[in-house]
Amino acid sequence: xxxxxxxxxxxxxxxxxxxxxxxxxxxxxxxxxxxxxxxxxxxxxxxxxxxxxxxxxxxxxxxxxxxxxxxxxxxxxxxxxxxxxxxxxxxxxxxxxx
Amino acid sequence: xxxxxxxxxxxxxxxxxxxxxxxxxxxxxxxxxxxxxxxxxxxxxxxxxxxxxxxxxxxxxxxxxxxxxxxxxxxxxxxxxxxxxxxxxxxxxxxxxxxxxxxxxxxxxxxxxxxxxxxxxxxxxxxxxxxxxxxxxxxxxxxxxxxxxxxxxxxxxxxxxxxxxxxxxxxxxxxxxxxxxxxxxxxxxxxxxxxxxxxxxxxxxxxxxxxxxxxxxxxxxxxxxxxxxxxxxxxxxxxxxxxxxxxxxxxxxxxxxxxxxxxxxxxxxxxxxxxxxxxxxxxxxxxxxxxxxxxxxxxxxxxxxxxxxxxxxxxxxxxxxxxxxxxxxxxxxxxxxxxxxxxxxxxxxxxxxxxxxxxxxxxxxxxxxxxxxxxxxxxxxxxxxxxxxxxxxxxxxxxxxxxxxxxxxxxxxxxxxxxxxxxxxxxxxxxxxxxxxxxxxxxxxxxxxxxxxxxxxxxxxxxxxxxxxxxxxxxxxxxxxxxxxxxxxxxxxxxxxxxxxxxxxxxxxxxxxxxxxxxxxxxxxxxxxxxxxxxx
Lengths: 98, 536
Description:
The complex is a heterodimer of chains A (about 100) and B (about 525).
Chain A: H1 57-70, H2 76-80
Chain B: H1 7-16, H2 24-29, E1 39-41, E2 49-54, E3 61-65, E4 70-76, H3 100-103, E5 104-111, E6 118-119, E7 125-127, E8 132-138, E9 141-142, E10 157-167, E11 172-182, E12 192-195, E13 198-203, E14 208-214, E15 220-226, H4 234-240, H5 242-251, H6 279-295, H7 299-309, H8 314-318, E16 321-327, E17 332-338, E18 353-359, E19 364-370, H9 374-382, H10 384-387, H11 407-419, H12 423-431, E20 452-453, E21 466-467, E22 473-477, E23 484-488, E24 503-509, E25 515-522, E26 528-534
Antiparallel strand pairs in B: 1-26, 2-3, 3-4, 4-5, 6-8, 7-8, 8-10, 9-10, 10-11, 12-13, 13-14, 14-15, 16-17, 17-18, 18-19, 20-22, 21-24, 22-23, 24-25, 25-26
Helix pairs in contact in B: 9-12
Pfam family, one (chain B): Det1
Organism (chain B): Nepenthes gracilis (Slender pitcher plant)
Protein name (chain B): Light-mediated development protein DET1
């Protein structure tokens, strides 16, 4: 496709059919190479609806704090041992006065 | 950030550069560094009204007559005059241009209050979407009113409070809502909160939160009343079961009250005069109870914990009163509770107070904090903007400088925090400003802390009267070069002759135009001096 579009592929061979190369002395093929997906693992799940969370971040924090108070507290021994042996436990950033 | 301070260079640069993502408003606001209200017309001849506020969209100037019975609405416009000849910049303004009427056109003057009523001049709410304003008139306050009909003792009573919904374009009264023998704190919009089209009115005397909706056609419609009952059909439910309750009470007279832990309504705790706690109080007490119950994991210590933390303070919790309310979003309210002593006092710092988040849809509480809770303070520090409840219809609220959207304000807060000797006192003071009164800050870009630096004690975005000095208030650029851009001097040009008199000044900034009014009042003389500051 010449230097304009960098030879990138498209999923539809009829795309870019209106494109005329800027340099008429070098007529390169206008049909782009086409690739089609061979699997459907990356398709969105059916009926997916993306919308904004109705609760704003402040309200979400209030609900999160309320849920944390309801959850059973971990035993002290669990807190001392890190969950993943190779990682250091991270200090909580949300409550630290900066 | 523009590369040059020159306005023509900036306009040219604006043509070729796009601002950084999500900063288009801040980018456009930088032009306010070039267009400043540097020229002052001192002591303008103007009608003797008390000017209240510019509406947030800049279309109207609201003022009330001195006798607090009439509403006068002006349209702010701009000077238009032409100057023949050369060297026009140095010409003085013609006398005609210096009149109040050159800047403001009177739209109408209407009488709001009847003979024994007065307009509350500190109260005004504006709904930008429909251009309607909410005003309040009330009759005189009666202190020591008897506590009848469910009223709380210790709160004064006002015979009639009327809220008027007025379409500001032409002054038509769209609807009215009257409260009889009630008390609503109207000073500086304290007892009423407007969010989008929902209105929350706190009746202190009957301890009820009235939620109303302003419909598109201008009707005020009752949505719910939270207080005695939480859900709309609670009253129906209780009344239909009242015969059952009376019968069961007679049967249970000789049994001791059983403490049902799993119930969310404490209807077995019968108060001697056989009345229930109000719906919202039951919800609150249940929430506190369940919080303490869940906190203690050891089953055998649960009752002990309850006794120490809940039952000892039970009567104090049961006596809590709703002080103030604000919306956090359409379904959640932030309610401040306190004792009956502090409900009307200006400085309520030494009274114990609590904050609670209530969900109207689920009719239950989500959170409950003391007024010195650090957890709540950290949320307040990070998300102050969300406490101001910006709604879709008032987007400019998002851009008013607060310490969660402006680095300079945040630095100021940090300085105060580091200087304070006791962290919990600091937290109490910071949280004391919650819940925020509605529409109490001016959206004018001249108060934007990233543009200008000014003395916050003399002038700020919050519309309150301040002590006035004879020195002009300086607005200095934050960016390089940090020069003085303009000065606002309230009062007459040469300073008033009366030296020791106490003067208070108030400032009204137009939200969009480089136009401001300053009013200085000398307390005992009852006369005021009005100056107009604008960009010439």
